[in-house]
Specification:
Layout: E1 4-7, H1 8-13, H2 15-23, E2 28-32, E3 35-40, H3 44-70, H4 80-84
Parallel strand pairs: 1-2
Antiparallel strand pairs: 2-3
Length: 86
Amino acid sequence: MPATPIAMREAHHRLTHYVALAAAGGEFLIMRHGKPLARLGPAKASARKNAQAAGTRAAKIKRALAVRAAKAWPSAKFDRADAYGG
C-alpha cells in the first residue's frame, strides 16, 4: 500500500494523531510545497509488538476528533467522557 501524502502544516498540527496511525501500521509521506520531504511509518520491532494497542489508541483519537467536530465549538464544552466512553 503506498504512503498517504499529507501536508507539512497538517503533520505539524496533528503529529500525535499521525504517529498513532503510523504505529498501527500506516505510512505517510510528508510533503512541502508539493514535494516529498519525509516518510512517517511504523518502527519495525515495536510495530508488531504494540500494533493492537496502537490501533486502539488510533481508534480513540479518531473518535475524540469526531466528537469534537460534531460539537459546536466554542459554545459547547468538549468532555473527555464523550470521546472515551467513560
